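Researcher: Predict the fold of AGCS family alanine or glycine:cation symporter.
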Amino acid sequence: MRKILFSVLLICSILNLTYAQDDEEEVGSSELKVTATIGNPSGIINNGFIELSVKGGVPPYTYAWSDQNTSLKSNRAENLVEGINYDVLITDANQNSFTGTYRVPVESITEHFNGFFKPIVDKMGVVLFSDPFAALGFYDPVIYSKRTQVAPISWEATTAVSYSLKKWLVSDENHITKGQEIAVVALSNGSEEIIKASASGNLKHLLAEGEVIFNPNNAEHLIAQGSQYFAEIEFDEPVALRYPNGTLKRSGVPFIVVWLILGAVFFTLRMGFINIRGFKHAIALARGKYDNPDAPGTITHFQALATAVSATVGLGNIAGVAVAVSLGGAGATFWMIVAGILGMSTKFVECTLGVKYRHITKDGRVFGGPMNYLRYGLEKRNLKGLGKFLAGFFAVLAIGASFGGGNMFQANQSYEILSGQFPALVGHGFTFGVVIALLVGVVIIGGIRSIAKVTGKVVPFMAVIYIIVSLIVIGVNIHNIGPAISAIIDGAFSPDALKGGFIGVLIVGFQRAAFSNEAGVGSAAIAHSTVKTNHPPSEGFVALLEPFIDTVVVCTLTALVLIFTGMHEVQGLGGVQLTSDAFASVISWFPYVLAVAVFLFAFSTMISWSYYGMRAWTYLFGKSKRSELFYKLLFLVFIVVGASVSLGAVLDFSDMMILAMSFPNIIGLYILSKEVRGDLREYLKKLNAGELFKKQRENKKKME
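Model: Structure tokens for AGCS family alanine or glycine:cation symporter follow.
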């Protein structure tokens, strides 16, 4: 393993040395002479810079950087990834141009890894997030705007100042030019602001003189999106929106979202809306009404559910939802719930198959999940070659995902969050990682029984904590319920939604739900395959509760906390910080409770994903206990690494592996769906006839 790691680092070093630029160099054409100053202030990733000095030609110069976040007017690009190429096209007033390529040199191992994986992540992103409809020419993905909105200059979502419209300087429906003074706004602190037009076009008044624009004490103003706007400017022609570097903004339907949602819709219809009609029976199974301790398997229905939920309920439910609501607005909440309900059907199908095709050894160990039903289920349909390929491909992706998204990301983010609340932890990432590794090791060394016992206690505890705290925040702001519901419904269905239109809001909501509950990814089928049952569909019923808990309950609560407190309108903060500030707006010490909840979320996710990765590992490298132990030790090492260093693109790569798991899995689910539907019909027929769970019914009668 050390030889392989050394070889990878050596190759990365050679590649970086081959393309690295000197710290300062002068190149140019006959007209423009350009001197580049390249810097890497530290060994921390993504903090490189390139600064250009131009001589010759006729100013002003424009700088078209390949980095989307660098302005056309800026000669300096910052926060750059070390070890990769950046291009810039410099043009002067006479259209003389110069093209240069520069690279920030790497100085640390983490920068080597980050720079090595960044191009890979970008290429994977092209596949996962490409828009198939735009590629086929169904529509133009470029984002155009017909109008822009006008707000007070100093307005921020967290402002404590009220704004009123004092005077219009231009009449309604008049044509204005960019930079023209159009209104005077009065602030409650006694100051005034002269508002100038940001573009040319027709001015439309939204308020009359003397009316209040924004009052932070008004619930409707605080929650409703766009309440800070008092005018609109309708462009003479639709304007294509651009990034700071001048490239066009595009809004499409990511292929991975289409893949997951279409699968969920298909399975919902194929199984006759099992997500709705099977909910009551699922609750009864999870409560243990039909548990059979003598059935084959190792853990109960509830423990299997808790293990699977612990793997999905994590930082994505807090940080990810905050980002989604910030980007897509309150309306994204509605579509997130819809996607969660649809995903319940996908979970039913994959977890039914996980139990049906599992293998139990003589010593009681269970080997199940997508690797089994992809290989042996497809083999039954004379698709042996395809089945072996899909199973192997899935296993490789699952191992990578377990080390990254299910391990290093959790350790890294939980350390960042806890150190933010408890300053004593700052600078002690390695020690934190060792402690977490020891805690995780104590649990996972004992296998699935030990994992199930811990998750069976931790998951309900952390869920109750988070739900109670969320309900307190919502309860304190219950007077905002009217504006909140209005913001969610209007934002979900309004074709002029401020956050990207109807399609844009829908996609943001669907994407967050799909990424959070992992319906279609197949990971949960590994945990559910270990359940004690003689009837595979019974565990499918239990599994459909997972997206409901993860998305419909936990994700929705996070979104409601943000909306009820008005934090969904705040820009420029990270997801966890947004949620933390929303909690702190009610009780100052609530962020500490949130930090504890985040830690428990991360801890439970790690122990569950360790089992997922181990089963994928044993599928590829043998089912011996020695193989299992090697994987567990390797998993613990990655926890320490994750908590110790910033990994950037390495974690992005692993996250994409989680999403990529859905490709082989859903292909198999489509092929095997007819079989699952047949098993479901047979199960329901026997259940309704009283032929199932006879022993459990008899025991219940005796107890009565």
